[in-house]
Structure formats: structure tokens, C-alpha cells
Specification:
Blueprint lengths: L1 E6 L3 H13 L2 E7 L3 E2 L5 H5 L7 E2 H5 L5 E4 L2 E5 L4 E4 L5 E2 L2 E4 L4 E2 L7 H4 L6 H12 L3 E5 L3 H13 L4 E5 L10 H13 L3 E3 L4 E5 L2 E4 L4 E3 L2 E4 L3 E2 L3 H4 L10 E2 L12 E3 L4 E2 L12 H19 L13 E5 L5 E6 L5 E7 H20 L8
Helix pairs in contact: 1-9, 1-10
This protein binds flavin-adenine dinucleotide (FAD).
Flavin-adenine dinucleotide binds next to helix 1, strand 2, helix 2, helix 6 and helix 9.
Length: 368
Amino acid sequence: MTHIVVLGAGYSGQVAANLAARRADAKVTLVNDRDRFVERVRLHQLAAGQELRERSLADLLRGTGASLVVDRVTGIDPGAHTVELAAGEPLHYDTLIYALGSRADLESVPGVAEHAFTVAGAEHAARLRERVAAGGTAVVVGGGLTGIEAATELAESHPELKVRLLTGDVLGSRLSERGRRYLRRSFGRLGIEIRDETRVASVRADGVLLAGGEHVAADFVVWTTGFTVPPLAREGGLAVDPAGRMIVDDTMRSVSHPDVYGIGDAAAVRRADGQELRMACATGLPAAQATVRAITARLAGREPTPFRFRYVNQCISLGRRDGLIQFVRGDDSPREAVLTGRFAALYKEIIVRGALQVQRHPGLPTSF
Ligand SMILES: Cc1cc2nc3c(=O)[nH]c(=O)nc-3n(C[C@H](O)[C@H](O)[C@H](O)COP(=O)(O)OP(=O)(O)OC[C@H]3O[C@@H](n4cnc5c(N)ncnc54)[C@H](O)[C@@H]3O)c2cc1C
């Protein structure tokens, strides 16, 4: 029987393993470095001191027939069709799904790894939570969705904190005019100071140094400028782009190794027009489902249909009581329409719960 091995039990890998175990005529093994599912999209909430409910992967997989291996993947040998593990014996696969996700980019600016906090991983977010509790001035670097959500969550949950957000471009530049205006109003209401078009050259224990030499003081720095991906695809000789994301075709199959598929943040999945999908559950979940469809089609001797993706919206939480839903065109460019305030916060909460529901019921619709 074909053995499908899935690496990474985040949003996309867990759905792929769960669905493949239900739909494919194959043995399925899911490998992850912890036995819990991390709700990564809520890690800014964890950092702000909220409790997150833990989900066991064994529970999510119950009844599917998939096996779970809790171990750290240390290498991939596509020639031998094996995966190296830190503790266990190498695993042999017939088909591999690479879904190792991403982590905070700690290397691109000096001092980040030593001094900054992040919300990209559960342990990092928990460390930040402890620092936040001690109060002071927080500088959040990065004006993307993660920076916006982190800054607003911290400011709302800890009104005693002074929060500043530094961003290289203009805050909300990828939103519509209405979206941008609303975002700035929300930041104002929460007392968050914004510094646009500001380049951070280094991070120190006492704040950040800007490209022009100015020192911006902070008791702690939260670094949210982007994610980087694990090196394992590159090290294994699989085709990757300069960022290390696996290059895949329109069925998420590696362009260099046809028995390997790549999904989620760790793969550069593209729309039909060539645009690379952004790192998000909103893109990872439908790609995971489509990958399983492609694999089951090929196992049955059929040619799979290409993956077609259209964006619908960008859902941004601004704390627990406010939000901004930016409706977008299929290519992610903003429409003028936005939903704001408490309804938007509720809308976002429903989407986040939906992304978790899909982990248990991997066939549910995921175009959100
Ligand atoms: C604070 C925050 C808020 C976000 N908000 C949103 C949002 O609102 N909407 C949205 O669409 N996206 C959001 N994102 C992005 C979203 O979380 C990611 O795009 C998504 O988690 C990617 O899913 P994935 O399956 O590729 O990887 P991940 O969810 O990162 O999962 C990867 C898995 O692989 C495991 N792993 C990694 N390396 C190894 C190894 N060597 N061996 C074994 N296991 C390993 C990890 O432990 C993890 O379980 C947010 C991210 C953050 C940090």
C-alpha cells in the first residue's frame, strides 16, 4: 500500500494528513515536533495574556486511521525516499507532503535574535507574555497583519503599556482608503503611536536603532517583519526559491521531485496568473485540500485538475472588541468595501474558529 508521509501538523499539514487518511487508498503518517496543534493565528492573543485551548493531534486524527509520529524532522533524502528524524528511525515514504510552515525571521537585522520577542511560535509568544506582564514601553516592528494584530492586542489587553509601531512603509498601505483610515482611528483610540516609513537597522536591549542612527527607546521589542522557512527542502536538494520555499506546480507537486508535494508557508504555491500566494491559513487550507485531491487522483490513474485560488478578504483583529475585514479582489487587491468594529471582530473570530473546525472536519469549505 502507498505510504503518504506528511511533515508538519500545522494548519495545512494536519488537514492534508487527516483528509488523505479519509480519502486516499494509502497508509498515512503525520510527523510533528510536538503532540499538540498550535493555533498560530491566535499567538498574539497568547502573548497578550489570554489562555488558548490546547488541542491534541491524536484527538484531531482520531478515527481517521492516520498514525502520528512526534519527532523532529532533521533531513529529507528524496533519492532514497526517506525522512530523517532526530530520535526515531528514518521513515520511508512513497509520497511526501512537506508542510513545515514558517518561523520568525530573526536573522535579517542584527540584534533581533538576541533581544527581540516574536509571536510566530508558541514558545516565543509565551516568553513575550511574561515580559508584557512586567509593563513598560513596547516597540512593535513591522506593519503587516501580524504587527497590526500584535500591537492592538497588546494595547487593548494592557492599557498600562506604551505601544509604538514602526513600519518600513505606510501603515495599512495594502488596504483601501477606508480601511487605512479605520486602522489609524483604531490605533489612535488604543493610544498606539505609529511611525511610518521607518527602517530599523538593529535591535538592542534598550530599543532599536534606525537606519539614520536615531535611537528609539523601548523596554522590549516585538519583531514581526516577516517569516522565514525551514531549510530542509533546500538541504534535501529539492527545488526552492531564494527564500527557501519549495517550488511547486499547480497541483502543489515539487517541480524537481514528483513524489513530493509542498503546501502552506513552506511552499511557494502560485495562482494561475503566477502570483505567489501569501503565507496564511487562508491559502494553506484550500491548497492542502487540493493537494489531497491531486494525490488521490494520481493514485487512481487520473490527471488532477489544477489548483485555482481566489482571495476573498483579509481579516484583521484589532484586539478582541474591534476588527477590520478588508474585502479584496481575487488577486488580493483591496476593494473599497470594509467591515469594521464589533461585527468585524466577530466575523474574524468565526473565521478563526472555522480554521480550527477544518482540522477536525478536513472536507469543510475553506474559501475564507
Ligand atoms: C500571530 C499570528 C497571526 C496570524 N494570523 C493569521 C490570520 O489571521 N489569517 C491567516 O490566514 N494567517 C494568519 N497567520 C499565518 C498563519 O498562522 C500561517 O500562515 C499558518 O500557520 C501556516 O500554516 P502551515 O501549515 O504552513 O504551518 P504552521 O502552522 O506553521 O505549522 C507547521 C508545523 O510544522 C512543525 N514543524 C516545523 N518544523 C518541524 C520539524 N523540523 N520537525 C517536525 N515538525 C516541524 C511545527 O511545529 C508546526 O506544527 C498568522 C500568524 C501569526 C504568527
